[in-house]
Amino acid sequence: MIRITLAGCTGWVGKALVAAIMAAPDLALVAGVSRQAAGRDLGEAAELPANGLPVFATVAEALGVPSDVLIDYTKPDSVKGNVLAAIAAGRHVVVGASGMSGEDYAEIAEAAENAGVGVLAAGNFSITATLLRRFAREAVKYVPDVEIIDYASPGKPDTPSGTGFELAETLAAERMAETSLPVSELGGVRETRGGAIGAPHPVQVHSLRMPGFVLSCEAVFGLADERLVIRHDAGTSAAPYVGGTLLAARRVGEQAGLRRGLDSLMA
To answer: Which among 34, 100, 27, 40 has a CA at the least distance from the CA of 61?
Structure first.
């Protein structure tokens, strides 16, 4: 039985995870974290029948309840501190929240290695988003020119999304140098070329935030006289993220250190 603490238990994905964990025969939900629902019953806070489990205001408090894995679906301003606190407490961590930088992940990777615990972070735990990443990594071996377009609702607090950021970092590390002119050599309004993410060959990422989108991400590849677009579109349900998150919770303890992307668990 894997004991789970869930941070962000009253969020969009969090509520769906509460129900799924409670229904899984090999998982046990032991505590939740939500500032707005602190002190309440976890089941009721997730709009489910009462289950007698506590909801804490902070991850630090929740770690006082014995557990094996922290699942974090909180916000960009709190996720790094939550992850480091869990590592220091000897817990494995599944990170579903976005907003951390490459430097943040490097710090987490070192901390996890030193503590001998596993951390699995993904910008998106859905199967089709994971396949977008996997197919894009294959394409970039042959097509070096790639840019990413990231779409989300107007209320999304971070830009780009975790999906777009993680994909850009991955492709920047694996692609050859692009053939397009460097942004530094362009005239006009350079900001229209998007933001450069990753190294050694940064990928330009363009973020749209407007009504009508939940989350979409596309990788656009170009060669002379041909083009390839690989795109993921999310619907309005949190269901696509649940299965991948629980898979990560079941397997995060297999390896110490940091792993990025759900595809790190795929054969």
So the answer is: 34
pLDDT band at 267; cut points 50, 70, 90? low
**Cα separation, 176 vs 183, whole angstroms:** 17
Question: pTM for this one?
Answer: 0.87
Q: Is the distance from CB of 148 to CB of 220 less than 8 angstroms?
A: yes
The C-alpha atoms of residue 121 and residue 242 are separated, in whole angstroms, by 14
What pLDDT is attached to residue 78?
94
Categorize the per-residue pLDDT at 165 as very low, low, confident or very high, splitting at 50, 70 and 90.
very high
d(CA 80, CA 77): 8
What span, in angstroms and rounded, lies between the C-alpha atoms of 172 and 144? 9
Beta bridge partners of 232: 217
- Tell me whether residue 93 is exposed, middle or buried, using C-beta atoms within 10 angstroms of its C-beta: 0 to 12, 13 to 18, 19 or more: buried
Task: For residues 91 and 226, give the distance between their C-alpha atoms in angstroms, rounded to a whole number.
Answer: 48
Nearest to 172 by CA among 132, 145, 191: 145
Strand partners, 93: 70, 119
